[in-house]
Amino acid sequence: MVLAISVAVHKASNILFDLLTSPLLVLPPNLLVLHT
Fold first, then answer.
1. Dihedrals phi, psi of 12, to nearest 5 degrees
2. Is residue 36 included in any domain, yes or no?
3. Can you tell me the distance from the alpha carbon of 4 to that of 30, in angstroms, rounded to the nearest whole number?
4. Is there a domain that residue 13 lies in?
5. Could you tell me if 24 and 35 are in contact, meaning their C-beta atoms sit under 8 angstroms apart?
């Protein structure tokens, strides 16, 4: 039960990470520096 939940959370975090990083990689490094 716990393993299934952790796997689901891991997959969801990976998808969110991809959604967040993909647009950032397209942006110029200057905007990235300002963002962080």
1. -65, -40
2. no
3. 40
4. yes
5. yes
pLDDT tens-digit profile of 1-36?
Answer: 789 999 999 999 999 888 888 776 676 666 656 655
Q: Whole-angstrom Cα distance, residue 16 to residue 19?
A: 5
Residue 23 lies in a domain: yes
The string over 7-35, giving b where at least 16 C-beta atoms fall within 10 Å of a residue's C-beta and e elsewhere, is: eeeeeeeeeeeeeeeeeeeeeeeeeeeee
DSSP state of 30: H
Q: Tell me which residue range forms the domain holding 27.
A: 1-31
- The C-alpha atoms of residue 22 and residue 27 are separated, in whole angstroms, by 9
**Within-domain flag for 8:** yes
Token digits for 17? 């990470």
